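[step 3/7] inverse_fold.run input=structure_tokens len=179
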């Protein structure tokens, strides 16, 4: 059994392979635990089934990542020095000794760093949409579109459909294209 633990994520492999051949088989692929019910003192919370701690909705790490992205997209009142400092501070806090240089700081790096830092925090879909990589076929990942090697998705999936109950109560609403 292999187990890797950082301050935020525990990765347990056991005898598992990383490969997922059947997406409905819960015994394939790695098991990742990000949040636990452990207290800073080492004990556990009051409930062994549900976590006592609040789910973080907005983290300072996200602010640092947004700053670096805004800088790369041309925002005024930002600096490359600050963007690099913020990103490297995040990496050091996460026990990653590999700091980056200005040559490595680009939008693809930011997208990847957001995936690492904000894993399991419900940011990935919107990040991929904002970076233009959620739909289409230029950026595929395993099981994208329910295909083992990933498949191209139509661009209308960047938006969710408007619920039929909402459409029924407001005649001024029009369903998003493709639904």
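[step 3/7] decode complete -> sequence:
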């Amino acid at each position: 059994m292999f187990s890797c633990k950082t301050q935020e994520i525990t990765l347990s492999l056991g005898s598992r392979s990383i490969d997922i051949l059947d997406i409905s088989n819960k015994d394939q692929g790695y098991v990742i635990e990000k949040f636990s019910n452990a207290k800073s003192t080492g004990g556990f919370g009051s409930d062994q089934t549900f976590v006592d701690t609040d789910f973080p909705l907005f983290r300072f790490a996200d602010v640092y990542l947004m700053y670096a992205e805004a800088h790369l997209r041309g925002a005024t009142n930002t600096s490359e020095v600050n963007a690099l400092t913020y990103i490297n501070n995040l990496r050091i806090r996460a026990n990653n000794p590999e700091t980056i240089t200005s040559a490595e700081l680009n939008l693809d790096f930011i997208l990847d760093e957001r995936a690492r830092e904000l894993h399991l925090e419900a940011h990935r879909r919107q990040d991929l949409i904002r970076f233009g990589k959620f739909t289409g076929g230029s950026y595929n990942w395993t099981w994208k579109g329910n295909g083992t090697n990933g498949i191209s998705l139509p661009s209308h999936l960047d938006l969710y459909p408007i619920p039929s109950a909402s459409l029924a109560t407001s005649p001024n609403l029009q369903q998003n294209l493709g639904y």
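[step 4/7] annotate
Residues 1-7 have pLDDT under 50 and may be disordered.
The two ends are 46 Å apart (CA to CA).
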